[in-house]
Amino acid sequence: MTAIVLQARIDSSRLPGKALLLLDGKQLVFRVMEALNNIPADLRVLACTEDSLSSFTPLAQEADFQILAGPKEDVLERYCLAIRKYSIDRVIRATGDNPFVFADAAASINTEASSINADYAGFLNLPYGAGVESVSSSALLRAAEQANLPSEREHVCPYLYNHPELFSVYRPNAPEYWHFPDMRITVDTQEDYNRAAELYCALNNESNRYNGETIIKKYAEIFYK
Fold first, then answer.
1. Model-wide pTM > 0.85
2. Which residue of 46, 162, 183, 211 could cross-link 60, Cys pair, CB 3.0 to 4.6 Å?
3. pLDDT by residue (tens digit) across 66-85?
4. Which segments in the chain show pLDDT lower than 50?
5. pLDDT digits over 180-189, tens only?
6. What total number of domains does the chain contain?
7. 194: domain range?
């Protein structure tokens, strides 16, 4: 079974409470789940922190996501909790900062990863905030047993791609039509949020609003004048 597992928390040092900030009338974390619903998967899980659970539960239910809570800093263990609870074989890892995930790119990298049985896969040089990672559950469970650095546990996947001698790692460059590494569409600061709010509203009338080329084109129209 393939599951999208979204990590999210309420507190943020750079933009406090950002998960509950509104994008066109709905909370940021809901908009992220809304985008992720356009990626093929058997299951969708919001893996949050204990202090986020009460606020996130109704939003997860509305977005048709399962929800579980786990350690705040040990995000890798949060993923392992989801893997064990739902018997997941492959994880599409997403983060709560990114309401403009390219659904087509996500589906593409996951299909490629599955076809070659990669432990870890992710496109390089997508816009910042556009991508997901496709990871085998067995690799994540192994990483949880071996990774000791706080950064390896907080950011989930560095132990895998930094140890290609232990894991099958696939990190292709993004195709030219998605290759915009200088474009920033994540939400981490107030400036990011202001830009995201403008972009989200501009995409409202686009039929392919979760398509990478559509997002890139609209972003360029607004911010590359």
1. yes
2. 46
3. 999 999 989 999 999 999 99
4. none
5. 999 999 999 9
6. 1
7. 2-223
Place of tokens 């996130």: 56
Cα→Cα distances 127→158, 175, 179, 182, Å: 19, 12, 7, 6
In this prediction, residue 13 carries a pLDDT of 74
CATH assignment at residue 197? 3.90.550.10
